[in-house]
Design goal:
This protein is an alpha/beta fold. Helix content is about 35%, strand content about 20%. Strand 4 and strand 5 form a beta hairpin. The structure holds D-malate.
């Protein structure tokens, strides 16, 4: 009997119940932009991140000492919040030691849907660290793509293809998941230039219409790498 562990890819937060097994490690990805924001915020010194589901819940923290409240809906920042959902909010900003309360359209929902599992978050900023951690841990893995409002998006499966390729190349994993197979095919089709390959994707076009192309470039090909792995501990993301 092979001791290889299994990898699956779930394409949307809403489909997670089809994959949930109560024991796999779940890697949540929302590469444009929630998990890239989470990686960047921790890298810049944020101490704790509280992902919440509603704007009202996030605003309950607005006046609390040491809290930053950040919200995005349909890629747009929300009035009354300190930040939207750009990684650039946190770079060279006054965030060291702060608690970030974050609610986004899809990414924080994916984290919530998987909360009964061990949940870590991944982006292209910490992908190598996440892969090394999973290989060391050697458990079954579900890569949970956030998607967009319950439907498939292109960028998260491509990331899933990137992470799955790293895990499979270790020789310690195997998969018979068609979503994973498709994700790797998409990654191969991108031929190393994700920004170009995603030119006509829905979310890149949505961000472009909001003059946020720099966010897309940063998230798809970050100029920095981090070894920080955010892990869900109760209702908070902390540094593993
Ligand atoms: C999401 O939650 O779908 C994304 O984070 C949206 C965004 O920030 O553009």
């Amino acid at each position: 009997m092979s001791d290889k562990k299994n990898i699956q890819v779930c394409f949307t937060a809403d489909q997670f119940s089809k994959y949930s097994d109560g024991k796999s490690t779940v890697v949540v990805v929302d590469v444009l932009r929630a998990t890239s924001v989470i990686s960047t915020a921790f890298m810049e010194g944020v101490k704790v991140i509280i992902p919440v589901q509603t704007l009202e819940e996030a605003l309950e923290y607005k006046e609390k000492e040491g809290c930053i409240v950040a919200a995005e809906r349909n890629a747009k920042p929300i009035e009354g919040f300190d930040y939207g959902n750009s990684p650039f909010h946190y770079i060279n900003a006054d965030v060291v030691g702060k608690t970030l309360v974050l609610t986004t359209t899809n990414g924080t929902k994916a984290i919530y849907n998987a909360k009964e599992h061990k949940v870590i978050t991944a982006s292209y900023i910490n992908i190598e660290a996440v892969a090394n951690h999973l290989i060391d841990e050697h458990h079954d893995v579900i890569i949970l793509c956030s998607g967009w409002k319950g439907v498939f998006n292109l960028e998260d499966p491509i990331f899933a293809g990137s992470l799955a390729t790293l895990l499979l190349s270790s020789g310690k994993y195997d998969s018979n998941c068609d979503s994973l197979f498709a994700s790797r095919q998409l990654l191969n089709n991108a031929n190393g230039d994700l920004f170009k390959y995603l030119s006509d994707s829905s979310h890149r076009r949505r961000l472009k219409s909001l003059n946020m192309e720099d966010d897309t470039r940063f998230c798809l090909a970050p100029p920095v790498k981090s070894t920080i792995i955010p892990i869900l501990n109760g209702d908070k993301l902390v540094v593993l």
